[in-house]
């Protein structure tokens, strides 16, 4: 039901408000600017500065040095924050993800390189063990189960290592129960009470993470699936419960993931909680669009801006997208 009764045609002619670019701009209900974008960067410990990711055309695995250059580019484009995701040598992967808590590991090195080169940009890190475990799961295992409580200590330590290296925002993406509280307590206890937590609160078990798992090299490792911890895509009320718990445990902002197939969840979360709500246009969404663009089936610039604007319309404070630099360039024209 509308809150008013529109006048009948021909008194009401909705097209009047669309009749020229200036009036469309004047009455636009939402805006998209570079300040709405978070750029995910895949970083690696390999020798080369930039290695293309086959399943994500236009995305590269970056060395710490190349990541610092990307952060400078992002800052200059007006992008407020980058997010780091690691691809580490398979030889350092083990059952408990030891590499995740190495204070001299790839992520701490990248954070420091970025903070040296572009101190003005926010740096967000992924808190999860999957990139460091030989089984590819986000927590530790007991037999063939992902052990919730035993994973919490590892995740809290990882978040501390990131904060200590200079991360501004830690983003637990593991979906263990109680991880936000564990991370918040570890940060508080160690003098990092100003470090933000952006929780991947409603993260669904999704086919759309496929290209990312290739990019970080966790797909060959992954045993089974993540359905015992990531959410079932049949559910929506459950997303509200997850968000409520994460906020009560100390999350500053929340995320819905994936993005485009889950804008209904974004809408419910942002309306219910009125906290900064982000969404992630994930690797599979990016790959799907790039494949169509490469075939000439979608117009690149229009498709990028339309999808990103959709996130804002749904209620997002911002969007994680691999298209961030392209979008920022289009928006600053
Ligand atoms: C895992 C993590 C994933 C992504 C970000 N962090 C994948 C997963 O849960 O398997 C996906 C990002 C993307 O698909 O773009 N900690």
TrEMBL record:
Q: Which GO terms describe its biological process?
A: protoporphyrinogen IX biosynthetic process
One GO MF term, please?
porphobilinogen synthase activity
Report the PROSITE patterns cross-referenced here: D_ALA_DEHYDRATASE
| Active site annotation, chain numbering | 203, 257
Q: Which InterPro entries has this protein been placed in?
A: ALAD, ALAD_AS, Aldolase_TIM
**Record's Pfam families?**
ALAD
Query: Per the record, what are the reactions this protein catalyses?
Result: 2 5-aminolevulinate = porphobilinogen + 2 H2O + H(+)
Q: What SMART domains is this protein classified in?
A: ALAD (SM01004)
What are the protein's UniProt keywords?
Heme biosynthesis, Lyase, Magnesium, Metal-binding, Porphyrin biosynthesis
Is Cell division given among the entry's keywords?
no
Q: Which amino acids does the record list as binding Mg(2+)?
A: 242
EC numbers on record: 4.2.1.24
Class in the EC hierarchy, top level: lyase
Name its pathway. Porphyrin-containing compound metabolism; protoporphyrin-IX biosynthesis; coproporphyrinogen-III from 5-aminolevulinate: step 1/4
Q: Which GO terms describe its cellular component?
A: cytosol
Superkingdom, taxonomy of origin: Bacteria
Family annotation (NCBIfam families): PRK09283.1
Instruction: Describe its assembly.
Output: Homooctamer.
Write out the similarity annotation: Belongs to the ALAD family.
Q: Protein name, please?
A: Delta-aminolevulinic acid dehydratase
Q: Which organism is it from?
A: Brevundimonas intermedia
- Source species taxonomy: Bacteria, Pseudomonadati, Pseudomonadota, Alphaproteobacteria, Caulobacterales
């Amino acid at each position: 039901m509308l809150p008013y009764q529109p006048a009948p045609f021909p008194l009401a002619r909705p097209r009047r408000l669309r009749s020229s670019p200036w009036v469309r701009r004047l009455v636009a209900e939402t805006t998209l600017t570079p300040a709405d974008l978070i750029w995910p960067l895949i970083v690696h410990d390999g020798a080369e500065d930039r290695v293309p990711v086959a399943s994500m055309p236009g995305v590269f695995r970056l060395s710490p040095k190349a990541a610092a250059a990307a952060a400078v580019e992002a800052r200059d484009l007006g992008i407020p924050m980058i997010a780091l995701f690691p691809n580490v040598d398979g030889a350092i992967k083990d059952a408990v993800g030891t590499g995740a808590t190495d204070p001299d590991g790839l992520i701490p090195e990248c954070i420091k390189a970025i903070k040296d080169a572009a101190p003005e940009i926010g740096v967000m890190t992924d808190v999860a063990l999957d990139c460091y475990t030989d089984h590819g799961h986000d927590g530790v295992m007991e037999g063939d189960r992902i052990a919730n409580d035993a994973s919490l200590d590892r995740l809290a330590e990882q978040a501390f290592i990131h904060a200590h290296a200079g991360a501004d925002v830690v983003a637990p993406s593991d979906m263990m129960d109680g991880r936000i509280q564990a991370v918040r307590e570890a940060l508080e206890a160690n003098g990092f009470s100003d470090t933000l937590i952006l929780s991947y609160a409603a993260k669904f078990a999704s086919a759309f993470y496929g290209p990312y798992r290739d990019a970080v090299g966790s797909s060959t490792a992954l045993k089974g699936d993540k359905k015992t911890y990531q959410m079932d895509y049949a559910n929506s009320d459950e997303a509200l419960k997850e968000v409520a718990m994460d906020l009560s445990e100390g999350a500053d902002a929340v995320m819905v993931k994936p993005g485009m197939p889950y804008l209904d969840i974004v809408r419910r979360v942002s309306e219910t909680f009125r906290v900064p709500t982000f969404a992630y246009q994930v690797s599979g969404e990016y790959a799907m669009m790039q494949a169509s663009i490469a075939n000439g089936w979608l117009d690149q610039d229009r498709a990028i801006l339309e999808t990103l604007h959709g996130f804002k319309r749904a209620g997002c404070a911002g969007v994680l997208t691999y298209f961030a630099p392209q979008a920022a360039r289009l928006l600053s024209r």
